[in-house]
Amino acid sequence: MPRSPLRAAAFLKNSGWRLALAFTDRRPPAQMDNATYNSLILQLEGIKVTKTSRYPVFVALLLVYIFIFVANLGIMVLIWMDRSLHQPMYLLFCNLSVNDVMGNSLLVPRVLADVLVPPSERFIHYYECLMQAFTAHMSGTNAHTVLMIMAFDRYVAICEPLRYAAIMTDRMVIKLTVSAWGVAFALVVVLLSLTSRLNRCRTLVANAFCDNASLFKLSCESSLVNNVYGLTFTVLLFSSSIGSVVLTYAKVTEACLRGKSASLNGRALKTCGTHLCLYLLMLLSGMVSIALHRFPQHDEYRKISAILFNVVPGSLNPVIYGLQSHEIHRCLSNVFRRRRAHLAF
Predict the structure, then answer these.
(1) CA distances from 8 to 4, 20, 157, 316 (A)
(2) CA-only gyration radius of the chain, Å
(3) Which residues are bridge partners to 44 per DSSP?
(4) CA 110, 115, 120 angle in degrees (round to 5)?
(5) Are residues 27 and 12 in contact, defined by beta-carbon separation less than 8 angstroms?
(6) CA dist 142 → 239, 267, 314 (Å)
(7) pLDDT of residue 260
(8) Which DSSP string corresponds to 246-296?
(9) What pLDDT is attached to residue 5?
(10) Cα 196 vs. chain centroid, distance in angstroms?
(11) What is the structure's pLDDT at 78?
(12) Beta-bridge partners for 205
């Protein structure tokens, strides 16, 4: 390092984030653990990949991300263009597709970039890290709230079929959508506001991407308030989500058992089964990721599960709905049939 202050500044500016971090990290570890540090440059630990597995992992994750983006965007465009799909069930499902595209588009590209660089060069700005954490938690929370309003829609359709058109109006769909996104936004903003107030004394983010738990672990201050709110947040979200889905499907099952139309009951159970499959998939993957935070010895499994929590539901949601929904399947068939007829001419 040049001794002249001007030369040192120029050297530091031209050396990139790696040397900047090394320059600011000159204090001994013991001193750093007990002092306010607040570096704006953080280092992502990322997932451990060998030189031989680096490119296969990158290609596999890239293909999954492309499929998520194309499939969910295709579902949204199809629902938007086909007026027969302008029904509350499909309009509410669009929220899930938007959420999957948003969450994966802001998280997966960063993970892909980090796979190709050594762990010592995986740097991220603190504000970008906060945005990643907001996206991760907003996407996960919103998945619960959207599936809750979708369960309400199925309840009204099956248990109150004669009043369905009067209840599930365009205005009600907008209210449910705003409520789902608004509740998720408010909960996540409070969660990250409590974390951002903490002073940081470390720079290593021990995860594949930034999330709330990884961020408040950078602080040497007491994180009791964060833990209490985080636990309350999780319990409130999961209990309301599970409770509403269980209550809804109990009522739906009761209505189907009382019904006299076997074909109508079969169609209702098929639609509800699709929704329940999406919900259980999202719930189990989220629970595994949260539970592994309590076991530091399984850090690599936790990182992989955090990535899978985003990419697995995002890739399976359009497939499950596309295959199980008769209307979407019919619209897709019509699109391909018209395209073949056009190519024939």
Answers:
(1) 6, 11, 70, 52
(2) 24
(3) 205
(4) 95
(5) no
(6) 15, 27, 13
(7) 62
(8) HHHHHHHHHHHHH---HHHHHHHHHHHHHHHHHHHHHHHHHHHHHHHTT-G
(9) 45
(10) 20
(11) 85
(12) 44
- Residue 193 host element (H or E): helix 170-196
Per-residue confidence (pLDDT) for residue 96, from 0 to 100: 87
Give the amino acid at 256: C
Per the CB < 8 A criterion, the answer to whether 20 and 126 are in contact is no
CA dist 315 → 104, 108, 174, 281 (Å): 10, 13, 26, 11
Q: What per-residue confidence (pLDDT) applies to 12?
A: 41
Q: Residues of the chain whose pLDDT is less than 70? A: 1-37, 259-275, 293, 322-326, 329, 332-345
Cβ neighbors of 41 (< 8 A, separation 6 or more) are 17, 20, 21, 24, 123, 124, 125, 126, 203
Cβ–Cβ under 8 Å, residues 106 and 140:
no
- Residue 178 tokens, joined: 């705003």
The CA-atom distances, in angstroms, between 29 and each of 22, 34, 35, 38, 219 are 13, 9, 10, 15, 14
